[in-house]
């Protein structure tokens, strides 16, 4: 298991600042499991190609010497079949790798020390994940890949479709597994969790219930008292007072996450005054089209107005 204390220990190790007591702790940690050893080497492979930037100050040559000394010392303790799993020493102790390892360890604690976010706002991450914290807090698992995001409150998420399947948002004992999408999770109380999807698809489930699939423009909620999930079409509230058609379309696109196209741009300034309360997108567009004497068509995943 990798903890914050372990990361600090590794940082001191590569920077050449280990005390004799630290060295004993580190050697014991490495000997505990193959997972620890794999993590030690994974730091190099994951971050050697991160690019240039400003790194925390450290003695690279000293780090390389210590790393080489440790590899030589610990390799004598391994049985022969374990030796084959080690990376070539020249590759491990390259300056670029040493810089990358130190960058990862120090940068996690200094430049981007986020394990818990409590300040409202939009946060972007290196893997293209975006989190908009609306209220409450989000925190990340300690497994380095941030596969699990813990939510208390309300937040919107946008995931890279190629990496989304490894992402899970957890609220209490409720899970939202992303399948490349944009979605919002509201978990202000332990009694219920609400999820709305504006793009793509999510799996919405719990420890004891396989749950439901939610697709674009769908929402669902979970009630803990009966351990059940419910699905419904996303419904919005809108009040338009002399609002231009182009602005109406913009607001609907933003809320429902579907593409609405106005074919004839000469209609974009037409004003409309109407109020909608918990209506689905199809109904709203029908009313808008009838009111302005236009026609709406549902084509694929979007709509056209002409």
Automatic annotation (TrEMBL):
Transmembrane segments: 88-106
Origin: domain of life: Bacteria
Keywords noted in UniProt: Membrane, Transmembrane, Transmembrane helix
Domain FecR protein: 124-202
Domain Protein FecR C-terminal positions: 238-304
Coiled coil (residue ranges): none
GO MF, one example: sigma factor antagonist activity
Name this protein carries in UniProt: FecR protein domain-containing protein
Organism this protein belongs to: uncultured Dysgonomonas sp
